[in-house]
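Consider the following assembly input.
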Amino acid sequence: MGIAVEGARKRFGDFQALDNVSIDVPDGSLTALLGPSGSGKSTLLRAIAGLETLDAGQVVINGQDATATPAQKREVGFVFQHYAAFKHMTVFGNVAFGLKIRKWDKAKISDRVHELLRLVQLDGLAERYPDQLSGGQRQRMALARALAVEPQVLLLDEPFGALDAKVRKDLRTWLRRLHDEMHVTTIFVTHDQEEAMDVAEQLVVMNEGRVEQSGTADDLYDHPANEFVMSFVGEVNRLGEHFVRPHDMEVVLDPDERTEEAMVQRIVALGFEIRVEFVLGDGTEVWAQLTRSELQKLELREGQIVHLRPGQTKSFNGDGSSPDRQGASTPSGGQGGDDAEVSAAV
Amino acid sequence: MVVLYLSLMVMLPLAAVVAESTSGGLSAFWDSVTGAQSLAALKLTVICSLIVVAINAVFGTIIAWVLVRDDFPGKGAVNAVIDLPFALPTIVAGLTLLTLYGSESPFGINIAFTRVAIVVALCFITLPFVVRAVQPLLMEMDREMEEAATSLGAGGFTVFRRIIFPNLVPGIIAGILLAFARALGEYGSVILISGNIPFDTEVSSVFIRSQIESGNVSGAASVSVVLLAISLALLIGVSLFARSGVHGEKRGVFARIFNRLLSRGGGVGP
């Protein structure tokens, strides 16, 4: 059950949008496809909806092979980044569209539409036209329209991408809650790792048409499979072959054998979090995430020389594909979250 | 400057025609307009124009569709040729049509001096209007609307009828109004092929000329004023449409009314 894609390939001219992609989305889950633009995440989502045909591979929706099923028959709810509102229809007409196609009778349509408009908090706006709504309202209308036909799965393509930060945050929380109520298997595409971690139960990280890693937000953050995932999910500093999270950068005033000399370049206060940017002796720029009280204790000033002690670090093989398990020792050097080794490499 | 130019080029001649038409008093004006030959010409002109815009509404939309949505070799050339009726002197168009469909027709089709010939000539002359009004709407149309409708279970024809067509209607109507205004006054392309037989194939513009030739200038002016009034009404219609807009925030009452008429969903409201 749920959604499974096996060995999906899709090429647009010279561009390989999907290169042997397989994902497995459990029934009733909320999964994020996360990746930079051009990573193939939207193509994959469109392929699941049948809006894109695959060159090779299989799409299975709730146990049924849907690869050859046209989009019209897939029973998939699709929400677009730019809403795809039917401009010439009212909010009511938009939401009722799928029901009219299914030849529901008028009274039933009216009941269902108003029920959905209440669910997406648009009751009272049924007679408005899409261009009389705000972006957030339009997207909620699009969501109600997709949900009206009780789809087997709900697919959202960067649903909050066109909205401003505040509305985006509200809608995220709201989508999360909606999903808890509806339990429809949902996949949403985003390039925003914070959004993905905030909303989804499971994340699939994509890059250059391939799946780099999938798992829970914690899995990906703590055990990234490769360099790409490490740097895409969460912030990261690069020290030679090693990667360290900014919150694992310890700032000390006295040097020891594990520290590296650094100059404070800039101190940025972001509310509770303080971002301190350093430049190392070899010109490498890194930053550390401190709390307000840590900063006060250290009394840092721009231009000051301090010492950095990287905590947990990770490194990956040259091809960036081999995962580094915490504490696992491998014969090849340069691996492992070993502090001593890190300071040697820095 | 602008006012002066517009006054000299537009307002003054219009005023002169109106003044001339009523030079013999209102009753003379009325008699000229409702004279049997004048009425027959007006009726012929209006009916032919209506038939022509109906044909071009359909074919113009199809041509616009093909030019926007399909890809074929020579598309650029076809796109350029659409404007030919605008660029070609209309008398040349008339001559071409007479050569093709006259008594010397290489295809053996002789429609010269018939009402069909008038319709054919006007169809040719007004072809670009609907095409050029619909084309930009099709190009700007949000393809995701169609995808959304498809994933909601709509088939190809339903998507066209319920999603694409309603969004093209403002363009089709604007094209129709312009084409109709043009067809009403068309002279050059019609005069050679129609034969100008009074009460049969004589359109208003030709009737006006014949009145001038026979010295009845105020009678000619009277019919002119009627054509002018119809054109003016149509142009006002077009500008109302343009102002009511089709896209985004500029949507107005007009577009609404039409959309409501067209989307069958109107009646299902709460």
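Confidence is low (pLDDT under 50) at residues 319-346 of chain A. Ask yourself how this observation constrains the way the partners meet.
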